[in-house]
Amino acid sequence: MGQCQLLCLFGLLLTTIGGSDGGGGGGNNVTYDGRSLIINGHRKILFSGSIHYPRSTPQMWPRLIAKAKEGGLDVVQTLVFWNLHEPQPGQFDFSGRRDLVRFIKEVQAQGLYVCLRIGPFIEGEWGYGGLPFWLHDVPGIVFRSDNEPFKFHMKRYATMIVNMMKSARLYASQGGPIILSQIENEYGMVEHSFLEKGPPYVRWAAKLAVDLQTGVPWVMCKQDDAPDPVINACNGRQCGETFAGPNSPDKPAIWTENWTSFYQVYGDEARIRSAEDIAYHVALFIVKMKGSYVNYYMYHGGTNFGRTASAYVLTGYYDQAPLDEYGLLRQPKWGHLKELHSAVKLCLKPMLSGVLVSMNFSKLQEAFIFQGSSECAAFLVNKDKRNNATVYFSNLMYELPPLSISILPDCKTVAFNTAKVSTQYGTRSMEQRQKLDSVEQWEEYKEAIPTYDETSLRANFLLEQMNTTKDASDYLWYNFRFKHDPSNSESVLKVSSLGHVLLAFINGEFVGAYLERRVAGLRNVSIQGAKELKDFSSFSWGYQTVFDAPTGSDPVAINLISMGKGEAWVNGQSIGRYWVSFLTPQGTPSQSWYHIPRSFLKPTGNLLVLLEEENGYPPGISIDTVSVTTLCGHVSDSHLPPVISWRSQNQRTLKTHKRIPGRRPKVQIRCPSGRKISKILFASYGNPNGNCENYAIGSCHSSNSRAIVEKACLGKRSCTVPVWTEKFYGDPCPGIPKALLVDAQCT
Q1: Residues known to be catalytic
Q2: Which of 236, 440, 631, 707 is the most exposed place for a label (fewest CB within 10 A)?
Q3: E strands along 184-326, which residues?
Q4: Mean pLDDT across the stretch 253-263?
């Protein structure tokens, strides 16, 4: 009873941020209280996804946003990249992939909201965390501190971005889609390092944000001491377990970064976060923390074009997100989360207006019940990571798989379980479309190694590379003279530097190299003779050739498996750094294919330029297309039917007062746009062995399996086959649990 009274009291507290900035009619009033964000008086539970505008192209934005909306998202979240927009003081660039206003207007056109994370420090595995390099040269500056030079430039930049949004009427208070903004980023992780200068900076940054009068709430992520009225938010993979909660009873629980994968660095294998794990922790956050906003970081990772990636981060960013680097659906992650969103939205009324009561079945099993005046929704939780659990709730028995949550929109019928994946699995494939294997089609360029007499910048020590180049290049030549002692048969070159790679030449001849393997930079390196890590004696600095764009609309990628380390340009636009020679412990490159957006290409005569640091072999390169060509569904009779069938059946029940049969588990196959199911590679109704990655017919198998699936699916873009004995003309083995596994090819 004490908890109910407390919840009811908090529900009366309502906070409005900033107020209207005079945007005129048609604006939306965005407020919040301890339960949720409130838009025009309506409480919201919002699902959001990070899509960063410069990590894709304007031509890709409409499709990415449409797929996010189809996946059940309400909000698109993006960082704002200061060093991309102001590469030099006072020189701004919002063209092409940098066109923030165009991106937000596209989100608005598709009916979604926007969360704008201004930073200015953004992290995001982006170079310098988004801070322009020229800030480094401002006299007396200390980044992210109670430091006047830094605060001057941060205020100038943040004000410029906010005024740009206001001029385009993009804040919700003006009728635009921006309902939430963020200042700073994960500062709480480093605040202690700034000693007495940290807390005043936090208070200043919060006041700066609120004083900008956007008319929408502001958040600070990983900032437990976020000053009122700024909302403190959680980042991580398990915010339902790790988040301490809002620092005020008047603030809602917000999850700004739910990491859908792990960002990958060169030398590492891809680490996969399962759809089941993501869904479990989202559901747990929503019920345990009364979470009302969950953002998937990333929903589409995209590409780190040019030199934008931070140290060692792959050019392909968060490729394991629900939308992969190319914008293709990453299944089953995309589909399983879509089902989760649908199930949660069936529960909105009791969740947002009812009273929450929790009950424990045992130490590892519990229930969260939202009871409204006439509606009820329940979430049954099994925290046991290894064992199934049987629980009794409202006089009914429920089986809960390990580490799972079942969602009951009516407190009776399970609509979704986080551990039971019924959506299809997809396999991405690369099709070679053009080999660049003719030596004659390549032009080779050698950079002249400068001599000491040709240099103009002199020093008595090695100049630090970044201070010298001002981030205009990854590379810098150093030259020095010495007189060889004839009595010493072999000289040793010793270098003290913080660089990552060292190549040494004497009198124009290559003598050795050191390539750092992801440590904190070089310190002291000795090169003796030419017996070091790699033989660079025959390498060239650059190569170029031309190629034609593959026909069709599939995404394009260049396979650089035969190259070493460098950067690639297509028609003058950098598609990013590559480092194919940096192998994982399993002996394979972390990334071999590099995305070439279709908008970079002409039909014919595309110029490819490579800067190759090592001794790569350009004739081993090919131009490929990327597609999802095989789809697999594996559903048992203990799986749940699609969530949409729960809604339709219960609507019929309300009208007719009787339940209509037919809600059954189903295998659903759906090819990408423009493709149809051309072949059934495998079909077995019974107890097939394995899973969608490795399967075989089991001891129980209906001989009709392939024929029935082919009749239902061949020649169609999508098909549905129920897991039902009558569909397969009888039970092939009574008493044994059944499953249907279908592997299909799309062409």
Answers
A1: 186, 257
A2: 440
A3: 218-221, 231-236, 253-259, 291-300
A4: 96
